[in-house]
Specification:
The chain is α+β, with helices and mostly antiparallel strands and 198 residues long. The protein has a single domain, classed as Pnp Oxidase, Chain A, CATH 2.30.110. Helix content is 18%, strand content 37%. It has 4 helices and 12 strands, in the order H-H-E-E-E-E-E-H-E-H-E-E-E-E-E-E. The chain has helices at residues 3-16, 44-51, 98-104, 117-123, and strands at residues 56-57, 59-65, 68-74, 77-81, 86-92, 106-111, 136-138, 145-147, 152-164, 167-179, 186-189, 192-195.
Length: 198
C-alpha cells in the first residue's frame, strides 16, 4: 500500500468509526520547476545536525490491532490543543508500524523516564518483536498498551492525518491520561539520550 493509500485507509476507518472528520485541506499550491539559478535544497546531513540541537522528550506510541500490540519510538510528539484536548505526533511514511496504528484508529503515548533509554532503543528497531519481555496493561478507553514503568501516558483516538513531506502528521483526541510517578524525563539531544539536571 502506498503512502497516500495508508492515509486514505486511516481516514476511511475514522469515518466508519464515527470519528469527527478533519477540516477541509487548503488548496494545493501551484507547482513549478525549480530554476537552475535557484538554491538547492538544504543538505539532509546539515538539516539533522542543526535540528539535533533542539532537545526533545522521548515517547513510545503503542496500539492494539487484530495481530496484537504494536508500537514505535517517537520524539516528534507535542500537545496541540487544550479545548478540545488534542495531541500530535509525526511518523515517517515508510514506517511499517504506522499502518497497524492507523488500522486500530487509536494509540497510547507512553512518555519515557530518564532510565528507559534501553526500552526506547528496543522500540526503535524495525522488524523485531518489540514487546518481547515488555510488561504492559490496556489503557482504560482504547485498550492500547500502557507500558509498565512509563512515568506518564495519554490514551487517544485518531481524529485526523495530514501529509508533511516525508512524514505524516497524526492528530489524536485525548480520551484519558495519567501520571503514575514523578520521574526525570528521558531526553534526546544531538543523537544521544540524556537527562534533565536543574
Amino acid at each position: 500500500m502506498g503512502h497516500a493509500g495508508m492515509a486514505a485507509t486511516a481516514v476511511r476507518h475514522l469515518r466508519a468509526a464515527g470519528a469527527p472528520t478533519a477540516v477541509e485541506p487548503l488548496p494545493r499550491p501551484a507547482l513549478r520547476a525549480v530554476g537552475d539559478d535557484e538554491r538547492a535544497p538544504v543538505d539532509p546531513g546539515e538539516f539533522r545536525r542543526v535540528l539535533g540541537h533542539f532537545a526533545s522528550g522521548v515517547t513510545i506510541m503503542t496500539a492494539l490491532d487484530a495481530d496484537g500490540p504494536t508500537g514505535f519510538a517517537c520524539q516528534s510528539f507535542a500537545s496541540l490543543s487544550l479545548d478540545p484536548p488534542l495531541v500530535t505526533f509525526m511518523v515517517a511514511r515508510t514506517s511499517t508500524t504506522w499502518p497497524r496504528i492507523a488500522a486500530a484508529g487509536t494509540f497510547c503515548v507512553n512518555i519515557l523516564g530518564a532510565d528507559q533509554g534501553g526500552l526506547c532503543r528496543s522500540f526503535a528497531v524495525s522488524g523485531a518483536d518489540k514487546f518481547a519481555g515488555v510488561d504492559w496493561t490496556p489503557s482504560p478507553v482504547t485498550a492500547s498498551p500502557r507500558l509498565t514503568g512509563a512515568p506518564a501516558w495519554i490514551d487517544c483516538v485518531i481524529t485526523a492525518v495530514h501529509t508533511g513531506g516525508d512524514h505524516l502528521i497524526v492528530v489524536g483526541r485525548v480520551e484519558s491520561l495519567g501520571a503514575e510517578q514523578e520521574a526525570d524525563p528521558l531526553l534526546f539531544h544531538r543523537g544521544r539520550f540524556g537527562r534533565f539536571s536543574g
